[in-house]
Design brief:
With 63 residues, the chain is an alpha+beta fold. The chain has one domain. It contains 2 helices and 3 strands. Strands 1-2-3 form a 3-stranded antiparallel β-sheet, with helices on one face. A hairpin with a 5-residue loop joins strand 1 and strand 2. This is HicB-like antitoxin of toxin-antitoxin system domain-containing protein. InterPro entries: HicB-like, TA_system_antitoxin, TTHA1013/TTHA0281-like.
């Protein structure tokens, strides 16, 4: 599965990232490597919570 994310420079330094297909799925990091690693964790966590709430069909239709 391919999920697109947008990585932004943070005003205070570092980066923050968002996944528009997964509302509320955001993360941050001090470096590009850190924000990418954190993004993987955030996406997996978001999908896990969505699966536990029994809403995977509505999620997959947005991807």
């Amino acid at each position: 599965m391919k999920i697109n994310a947008i990585i932004h420079p943070a005003e205070e330094g570092g980066y923050w990232a968002e996944v528009s297909a997964l509302p509320g799925c955001v993360t941050e990091g001090d470096s590009m490597d850190e924000v990418i690693n954190n993004l993987r964790d955030a996406i997996l966590g978001w999908l896990e919570v969505a699966n536990e709430s029994k809403k995977p069909d509505s999620i997959i239709s947005r991807l």
